[in-house]
């Protein structure tokens, strides 16, 4: 079924333009992707595997870039802003001060500025939490470079922090507890 959704992108005959062939092309004339939020790179391979695409149809698609497949589609989120973060998880009885870095769970945050709602979704699963926040803000993440290329990993050890910048200028850090409460 995935082969019917994707086809090679059209090519141009203008020789003055440098042609870069896309890996995939989404063949859906009714869908306009408004924003792409790539997930932080895998700490083992250094590659980004997932991306969140928000579209004009009010959906967010969690997309596996390696396979070229949609992993999950979240509907009813018109105007969504997306950012990725991660939370450390510790096994019960483990020493939190050990030298090895703890395992992390990748979380997609979906902010709906018109409704003032922030949702948290596990990368391959469903929604794990939602909370009311200020309306009209902006969701930013350390990972996407909006805070400057040199800031990546400075405050969160490479995990990628997420903040909401409210319309009045107040900045709130988004934190998720181990019980998945936002």
TrEMBL record:
Domain of life according to the entry: Eukaryota
Annotated Rab3-GAP regulatory subunit N-terminal domain residues: 16-140
A Pfam family assignment: RAB3GAP2_N
Protein name: Rab3-GAP regulatory subunit N-terminal domain-containing protein
